[in-house]
Design goal:
Znf_TTF, DUF4371, 4 domains, RNaseH-like_sf, Nucleotidyltransferase, domain 5, 12 strands, 5-stranded mixed β-sheet, alpha+beta, Zinc finger MYM-type protein 1-like
């Protein structure tokens, strides 16, 4: 009966590394070493990258990259019959396909980057087996072009990795910034964020008519950054002219990205106020903006956790038409993006347009089909406006009053002189009333 095996936690005896020498590669049970000068150059004879230890493969790749593709230039390449014609490898292909390699031993073509980074292991023609059908080279169906493939092909990925490993400036130790640069970038970005936060909170415009360096007023945003710099020397050292040209963090694109982050954070807060299974109502209105685009505003109305009714502006969406189905699709996209279920909708508030209140194909009817509790309520403000318009048209005195008032306002506001004289006249009347004691302060 054999002796029992020692427990796995006990210290095992030290084993001397076993070494096996195979041609130019020295294989070690604990490590794998190679001699750059003695690496096999012939692509048909060299060992594949995955035969090396994982922690040595990049070193092997770098060594081969230093040597470059194996492209021997012979006075005459071997020929063989393909069909009824003699064909051979052509050395001019190296110039057209810089990645191409040729094995003198096997008279076959290989791909250098695909050998280094064998991403697609199912195709071995250009990495292990080699390619030799020379009659298929050239023309629109050239095998070399087929191997290269489209922009996201395995060959293109291998080419990119080859270039990255070949260029030391792309290596991680060169790309990662030192701590003091990280601190500067962080302060610069923080200044930009705080400037955008202030302008957004105050509802102020960002851009100026002329934001060039020699402009006297570069717009609210850049002028605010300049004000921050004047108040803090550390900020002044890292912003605007003292910042790298490609990392100033003041471009219009940066402003939009940060504003979008702010908007998403606000929407998340509103979503948290509603709760996971909270009910809500939607208030919708659309209008044409100055750029002649139809904009749809979405407002959410709900009961907060403290029991008080809240109304929150949630989003504004540009719609290509005001068809009820289009509006519903866009509303559902916004609600679905923030995990707001239509089944939790308890009210709809719109104006009285046919596309909104239509009994069969209006927006309210489409939502009622999905949620029978989403009752439609005609907007009270819109109903009041309709009632006042109707009353003004039906009652002659009211109609004449508003018509005369409208004419007076238009007449006075059309001239700065008239407007000034009206103010002076009104001021004199108030002074007379105060002097007569008929108006208290």
């Amino acid at each position: 009966m054999p002796p029992p095996s020692p427990p796995i936690c006990e210290e095992q005896p030290h084993l001397e590394p076993q070494r096996v020498e195979s041609e130019n590669v020295i294989v070690d049970s604990q490590r794998q070493e190679f001699d750059t000068n003695s690496l096999e150059r012939d692509p048909g004879l060299r060992p594949q990258i995955d035969t090396f230890l994982p922690n040595e493969r990049d070193n092997v790749r770098r060594a081969y990259i230093m040597l470059g593709p194996c492209q021997p230039k012979l006075d005459e390449y071997p020929s063989h019959f393909e069909g009824n014609q003699m064909r051979r490898f052509n050395g001019s292909w190296y110039k057209q396909f810089p990645w191409l390699e040729y094995s003198v031993h096997y008279d076959k073509a290989f791909c250098f980057p695909c050998f280094l980074f064998n991403i697609d292991r199912s195709h071995k023609a250009f990495t292990q087996d080699g390619f030799r059908s020379w009659k298929r080279i050239g023309g629109k169906d050239c095998v070399f072009h087929t191997h290269v493939g489209i922009i996201n092909s395995p060959h293109h990925f291998a080419m990119q990795k080859w270039m990255d490993l070949k260029n030391p400036s792309h290596h991680i130790d060169k790309v990662v910034q030192p701590p003091h640069e990280v601190t500067k970038n962080r302060l610069r970005l923080t200044t930009t964020i705080e400037g955008i936060r202030y302008l957004a909170n105050q509802g102020m415009t960002f851009r100026g008519d002329d934001e060039s360096c020699d402009s006297f007023n570069r717009g609210n945003f850049i002028e605010l950054i300049k004000a921050f710099a004047r108040m803090n020397e550390e900020v002044e050292k890292v912003v605007l002219k003292n910042a790298p040209f490609n990392a100033q963090y003041i471009s219009h694109k940066i402003q939009k990205e940060i504003l979008n982050i702010f908007a998403n954070k606000v929407r998340k807060m509103i979503r948290d106020e509603i709760g996971e299974d909270g009910n809500f109502c939607i208030l919708i209105d659309e209008a044409l903006d100055d750029s002649k685009k139809e904009q749809m505003a979405i407002i959410l109305r709900f009961v907060g956790r403290d029991g008080h009714i809240r109304e929150r502006f949630f989003d504004i969406v540009s719609v290509h038409d005001t068809n009820s189905l289009t509006l519903k699709t866009d509303i559902c996209k916004v609600l679905g993006k923030h995990s707001l279920l239509v089944s939790n909708m308890r009210d709809q508030g719109y104006d009285g347009a046919s596309n909104m209140r239509g009994q069969w194909s209006g927006l309210q009817a489409l939502f009622l089909n999905d949620c029978p509790y989403a009752y439609y309520i005609h907007c009270f403000a819109h109903r009041l406006q309709l009632a006042l318009n109707a009353a003004a048209k039906e009652i002659g005195l009211v109609w004449r009053f508003f018509s005369m008032l409208n004419n007076i306002v238009n007449f006075v506001c059309a001239s700065a002189k008239r407007h000034s004289e009206l103010k002076l006249t009104r001021q004199a009347e108030i002074e007379d009333l105060l002097a007569a004691g008929r108006l208290g302060i």
